[in-house]
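Q: Please design a sequence for this.
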């Protein structure tokens, strides 16, 4: 005998019922499993004039990453024969649910933007042989046009792809030789939300996380950077190891995507 159809008096009741069903099946509110990243789509060559550029999408995140090349280096590198990689990061005013004031209007770079752009430059330099660049600066610009949690880690992945695109262009034009990039690079967030260890947190999950962590790794599985915070309750070493394992799984999937994009490998 068939069960009678369940009736709902409002969309709110229906939404609450579907949310409970997802939890019963081990699913998150966004429909993903605990160890599942948001599908990533990377559009290469997104900007006409930049030496390397992508539009990277993951869930509701949209970030434009571009690379410009300048034939100069910071003063501390003049005469060294070594190149440099640096980054800038910003959100357009309506990337989030409420309008943000531009840094140019404030007259200064916000603390969060400053921290993130230093992170992006730092992790990119970790996988590049700077001595092979000559005295050139590769300037990476990351502009978040829509944000839904995890923009710093997604910006790292997008920046890496845009940088590799720009470097391949230099190799193809005979400006540089191969052997510049030592390894692939990927990044993802992990955390603990309502007692559950989750991969690739969206904005709602990130806002309610008891533990929030950003992890950057190479294709060979080496750690480049780990940023972890107990937002509410401290966590033990075992939890840290599990979260790193979760991040490694997600980053492995991201690097597989990068390898499919660059069929001829790294420059």
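A: Design:
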């Amino acid at each position: 005998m068939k069960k009678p159809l369940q009736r709902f008096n409002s969309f709110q009741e229906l939404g609450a019922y579907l949310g409970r069903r997802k939890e019963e099946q081990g699913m998150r509110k966004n429909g993903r499993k605990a160890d599942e990243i948001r599908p990533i789509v990377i559009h290469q060559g997104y900007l006409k004039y930049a030496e390397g550029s992508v539009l990277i999408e993951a869930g509701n995140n949209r970030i434009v990453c571009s690379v410009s090349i300048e034939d100069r280096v910071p003063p501390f590198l003049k005469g060294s024969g070594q190149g440099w990689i640096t980054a800038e990061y910003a959100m357009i005013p309506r990337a989030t649910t409420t309008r943000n004031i531009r840094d140019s209007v404030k007259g200064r770079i916000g603390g969060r933007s400053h921290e993130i752009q230093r992170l992006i430059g730092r992790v990119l330099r970790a996988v590049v042989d700077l001595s092979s660049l000559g005295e050139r600066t590769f300037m990476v610009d990351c502009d978040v046009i829509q944000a839904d949690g995890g923009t710093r880690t997604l910006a790292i992945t997008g920046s890496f792809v845009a940088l590799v695109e720009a470097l391949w262009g230099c190799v193809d034009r005979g400006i540089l030789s191969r052997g510049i990039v030592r390894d692939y690079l990927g990044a993802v967030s992990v955390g603990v939300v309502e007692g559950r260890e989750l991969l690739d947190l969206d904005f709602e999950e990130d806002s309610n996380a008891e533990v929030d962590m950003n992890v950057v790794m190479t294709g060979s599985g080496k750690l480049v950077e780990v940023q972890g915070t107990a937002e509410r309750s401290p966590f033990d070493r075992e939890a840290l190891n599990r979260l790193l394992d979760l991040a490694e799984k997600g980053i492995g999937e991201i690097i597989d995507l990068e390898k499919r994009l660059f069929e001829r490998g790294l420059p």
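Q: Thanks. Anything notable?
A: Helices lie at 11-24, 103-106, 111-125, 151-172, 203-207, 237-261. The radius of gyration is 21 Å.
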